[in-house]
Design brief:
The chain contains four helices and no strands. The protein is mainly alpha-helical. It is elongated and about 45 Å long. The termini are close together. 10% of the residues are buried.
């Protein structure tokens, strides 16, 4: 069971790191177009980013550290 949780933690950390980097690469995420489409709901983009980028990375690192 510990090996599964450790592997899951590593996968989550890798996925979260990749999403974090991908969000900040210019032209990959067209933020002006998102702002135009979402209007006043644009700040939700950053909430989704935090939940799926750094949030996954931190959760994955915690799992990998605790069960590694």
């Amino acid at each position: 069971m510990q090996a599964i949780l450790h592997a899951t933690g590593l996968v989550l950390a890798l996925l979260g790191s990749l999403l974090s980097v991908a969000f900040w690469i210019p032209k990959l995420v067209n933020r002006p177009r998102l702002k135009e489409l979402l209007g006043p709901k644009y700040p939700l983009v950053f909430f989704v980013y935090l939940a799926n980028g750094p949030g996954l990375a931190v959760l994955g690192l915690l799992l990998a550290w605790k069960f590694g």
